[in-house]
Amino acid sequence: MTRILVISDIHANLTALQAVLDAAANVDATWCLGDLVGYGPDPNECVELVRSIQNLTCLIGNHDAAAIGSIDTMFFNREARLSAQWVKSRISKENILFLKSLPERVVIGEATLVHGSPRNPVWEYLLDIQAAAINSSYFKTQLCFVGHTHVPVVYTVDELGGGTMRKLDHKEIVPLKQRLIINPGSVGQPRDRDKRASYAIYNPEQKTWEAYRIDYDISSVQQRIVTAKLPLRHAQRLAEGW
Ligand code: ZN
Fold this sequence. Notes:
Blueprint: E1 4-7, H1 14-24, E2 29-32, H2 43-51, E3 56-58, H3 62-67, H4 78-90, H5 93-100, E4 105-108, E5 111-114, H6 129-135, E6 143-145, E7 152-157, E8 163-167, E9 173-175, E10 180-184, E11 197-203, E12 208-214, H7 218-227, H8 232-240
Parallel strand pairs: 1-2, 2-3, 5-6, 6-10
Antiparallel strand pairs: 1-11, 4-5, 7-8, 7-10, 9-12, 11-12
Helix pairs in contact: 7-8
The chain binds zinc ion.
Zinc ion binds near residues 11, 35, 61, 63 and 150.
């Protein structure tokens, strides 16, 4: 039985990342769908911890691209832009090289991996059935794993523009029988009003996706955000999951 840890949107939250890696334990591989940095206080620590993971496949996210200067932060909101500038001034040379090496799209077995969407891997948010349906013609595999919205969700998709959307709760198991787009949610900044770190375990042989949430020490991350003089909003939202 192969267990693959699927994570996304760590956002420089080392405490949440450590909690997820500890809780997932004994996985055969880890797939990270991007946004290792941005918003949070621990960009270098998070990139270093991700780099140390065995059997890692890691994609680039829009905040990673901003940190290495490969995209313009003009389209970021004010706080995201400030945080991107903060990361840029601190990220180490080794970590920049790692982020620069990350691909926008990877296909492994039955799954296509991207950060945002298969149509526009770095930027597009899949927020509704229409967007998911349009994107169904942009990947050839049965499954597509995305992050970026920070909400754990599964879409069934068809090329006629139809489909369904369902938010996933802790310990929910999704049978992977049809064409699906799935999001593991966010490790370091959940936005579905559930403050717990979000992740998933993909089992390609059993064809299942297990959604999980885990508590972590939010106040220690908030303290580091305050100490780093990052926007206080980044600290407040962690406690409420938005
Ligand atoms: Zn993100």
